[in-house]
Amino acid sequence: MIKMNRIGLFYISIAYILASGIIATAQTITKHGSKFGLNDENGKVILEAKYDTVIGYRDAPTFFVAEVSNKFLYTYYFNWDSLNPLPDNQRHWYISELEYDSVCFLRGTLQSDESQMQYSGIGYRMSGLWGIIYAQSYTASGNDFRASDYICCLGKQYKLPAKYERILDRELDYFYTTYLDGKYGLWNPLTGEEYSPEFDTIPIYFGKNYFGSEYGDRLRYVRKNGKWGVIRMDKNLRKIKYIAPCQYNRLEQVNKHIHASVGYGDTLMFFFTNSDSNYMPTNNGAPILFRRDSAKVVIYLNGDRNDSKRDITVKFGVLTGNTNEYSEIYYIDTLNKSTTSYCDTAYLYSTTSSDNNGLVYRRKKHPDEIKLKYEFFNINTAEFRFSFFLDSAYRLKHEFVKQKSTNASYRVERFYYRDTDNKERTIGYYSHTTQKFTRKKPKC
Q1: pTM for this model (two decimals)
Q2: Which parts of 186-325 fold into alpha helices (H)?
Q3: 53 by DSSP, 3-state: which?
Q4: Which pLDDT band, with edges at 50, 70 and 90, does 302 fall under?
Q5: Domain definitions of the chain by residue range
């Protein structure tokens, strides 16, 4: 923001090139005595020098706010209509009435679904409450102003009533945060979506980080009555849909598709961005709890993290310490609403792969024998697969073996250890396709 207030002459050099190749250049904030005004690039007066303050904005270089005796107006260069720049003979400076208690230019632009038209927000205050004025706009590169984008064209506008104590800048899902009577709400005046202030804190946006995120997650973390939940804004029904009710001490985004309730003593609940369903995993009918007082809890997702349509499965483990071994493992199939648990405290657990045919294996937690017994189970069904013994002096290792068929890559797993001479000694191979263990390498 550029502010001019009772200082000498100040020149704002502004130049930008539109897609049509039409060039507009600098305006000048002028001063006569103790008053300020605004001239265009040809020296023609836009605002007479009779104002106490004239303010310019770096991200909207042809938008200005003027103030006198605590009343404000705004002006901008009207050179844009629908999706096209106006002809030269129709361009002019629009000047509002001097009637506002305050005026500001709100960050960024909005985009209409129907016309792909962009709009810029102008915040105004009257009688102690804030409203929004929208002006059609066009965004261009703003390297000269040390910004990634700036508004180089402004056009037709429409005005929405002032009814909030505060309006905060919008997020990438096009929603402004509103504030009234100590509560926060959400408002997208352009599309008509408006959710009355009812939350304790500003709703937290965590969608995709680009313009056009209409196609991303229209979700927010919200806190109500001291508890957290997740909402989705439904633009068709014009109402909030709760993905997770406001009943959690804390929320965590596991990845862009799945979230979970976390926190000491909390019940574990998974909820998803691509559906309205959620799932509370249980162990023998009792809800699984996080116990973060004495163990570190980790959550893994199976499959491709970038595939929004995949079936989501979760591996949830309680680490025993600084190792990758677990005192508890839960394999949670959120599609079929089932949980397989491995919680025998006499054993340490580890996993060898993360797909649906993956393996979980266990060994004695405090072995006294020279040999350790490793028992392997299907991670999804807990069915026993195979077992073998290994001298306790050696550490078990495993790797995936690439097969010749491109459709079955890495479906064979080799188990081995390194002897005292650091030579690899193969124990055997497990085929995830046939679900069989052999001492010799199977044919690929």
Answers
A1: 0.71
A2: none
A3: strand
A4: low
A5: 1-163, 172-248
